[in-house]
Amino acid sequence: MSVTTRFAPSPTGPLHLGHAYAAIRAHDHARAAGGTFLLRIEDIDGTRSREAHVAGILTDLAWLGLAWDGPAVRQSARLALYETALTRLREQGLLYPCFCTRADIAASASAPHHGPDGLVYPGTCRHLDPGQATARIANGAPHAWRLAMAAAVACTGPLHWTDREAGPQRADPQAFGDVVLARKDAPASYHLAVTVDDAAQGVTDVVRGRDLLRATDIHRLLQALLGLPTPRYLHHALLTGPDGARLAKRNGAPALADLRAAGEDGPALAEALRAGRLPIGFAAHRP
């Protein structure tokens, strides 16, 4: 069976060691099977995406000795695909506009409930009169589009998927509440875009970090609602820093560009990551 994997970074900052590990795992998974490795740039966050970071991603991956098949695909060139998916969900009566700000949501949650993504939306706008909501949209009110989760789950019934390391999983998308599928400042959320893109690009094996294990519950639901295939999944360990926190842009993880500028050997670093020889103070961790 043919294998297609992908690495899909967002150009909102420089790549770091955690990104390198994720890219290597996806790349090697495909190459071991004689398959295809794709590069997708998730650049629809217009307020944070930068062309300089796109160039840096290409340079960093080449420095590590990783080669992808075909040109890098940009999400910003695929907006029509996301709108088609959103239209289909609207026609099923599964989307509703949400005008709430984060402050509104925090204030309206008298008994806050937290899910895998943080504070679960209390459903305020789900109860708006449709005519009132349409009028607000016509008047230019900023809004997101949320999935009516209970109705969506009722359409599909129980859903399952299997992770190659964590084993069989029963999807629990309701734990996330009414997730956003189109943001106020972006034409699609991560959950919608990644699900649509993986199907459109023929991704057969999703290889990514363990921090996204539970997000797959939402992706499995969207696949069922949109009639999309379900790929095989492998959620690998995350790299953590000396403080035990997973490597992330927001906490100053070492940038590959800095390592390159310091004279590090990219292919040698990649081989060390493959072999589990991590820089002093770093570790692989399964949350």
Structure description:
The longest helix has 16 residues, at 17-32. The chain has ten helices and 14 strands. Helix 2 (51-64) packs across helix 10 and helix 7 (190-200) crosses helix 8. The mean pLDDT is 91. By secondary structure, the protein is an alpha/beta fold. The chain has helices at residues 17-32, 51-64, 79-91, 102-108, 130-138, 149-156, 190-200, 215-226, 256-261, 266-274, and strands at residues 4-7, 36-41, 73-74, 95-98, 114-115, 118-119, 144-147, 160-163, 167-170, 180-182, 205-209, 232-236, 238-240, 283-285.
Strand coverage percent: 15-25%
Helix proportion: 25-40%
- Shape, principal axes of CA atoms: globular
Note the total helix count: 10
Order of helices and strands: EHEHEHEHEEHEHEEEHEHEEHHE
Distance N terminus to C terminus? 31 Å
Radius of gyration: 20 Å
Average pLDDT confidence is 91
Largest sheet: 3 strands, parallel
Instruction: Work out the number of β strands.
Output: 14
**Biggest sheet: strand arrangement:** 1-2-3
Uncertain stretches of 5 or more adjacent residues: none
What structural class do helix, strand and pairing data support? alpha/beta
Features of the shown structure:
3-stranded antiparallel β-sheet, globular, 18% strand, 287 residues, 3-stranded parallel β-sheet
